[in-house]
Write a structure and sequence with these properties.
4 helices, two-stranded antiparallel sheet, alpha/beta
Length: 207
């Protein structure tokens, strides 16, 4: 579905070409899109103008096995200066994406834990641990809700306990924290987070 502004709503029964959405997004305040990953990526590749009014972005993958490599959704944080809410469900992404460089109040990234024949876990977040920590540092001052489900960067399997971290960051506005992932990975993330005002904490750890 796609919703923009305060009144215009397009549901899944309203089929319009991806090309038509390109002209809509620069005027959108809220964009919710649930479709196949290639369509989502194609849409953002074709954007020629910044989305200066966009405040909320929600992208969700229809298929259960996204095979496309991740891409940047925006070229610069200046293209989405008013963006405050980002939700990506089962969408491959890069930790260096400028989407995460805005003054977010809500960040929700949801993946899934899948056991492959090689006992690997499918990861939707791509990049280094340093890039992930950089995102935490940037969003810390304004974030009110943080949901990370099976997207926390994986520590090496040889690591039996969370390593010490070089820096922790104050999250003065954080009220909701939800984590799903490997026990050590969740603990490693929590070592970076200093939050005294959290009202809801939900952690599901395994392994």
């Amino acid at each position: 579905d796609l919703m923009y502004g305060s009144r215009h709503y397009l549901d899944e029964d309203t089929r319009i070409p991806i090309e038509d959405l390109v002209s809509v997004i620069p005027r959108a305040k809220v964009l919710r899109l649930k479709t196949k990953l290639p369509d989502i990526q194609s849409l953002f590749k074709k954007l020629a103008a910044p989305a200066l009014l966009l405040e909320q972005l929600s992208l969700s993958e229809f298929d259960t096995t996204p095979s496309q490599p991740p891409q940047l959704f925006v070229a610069s944080a200046e293209d989405v200066p008013r963006l405050r809410v980002v939700a990506l469900d089962f969408i491959p992404f890069l930790w260096v994406d400028p989407l995460f460089s805005t003054q977010l109040t809500s960040l929700s990234l949801r993946g899934w834990k899948r056991r492959m024949p090689t006992d690997l876990t499918v990861q939707l977040g791509h990049g280094t641990m340093e890039e992930f920590v950089s995102v935490l540092e940037h969003v810390a001052p304004t974030l009110q809700s943080l949901v990370l489900e099976n997207v926390i960067p994986l520590l090496p399997k040889t690591v039996t306990e969370p390593p010490e971290v070089a820096s922790s960051y104050q999250f003065p506005s954080l009220r909701e924290l939800k984590l799903v992932g490997n026990t050590n990975d969740c603990a490693h993330l929590l070592n970076h987070v200093l939050a005294n005002e959290v009202e809801t904490v939900n952690i599901t750890a395994y392994g």
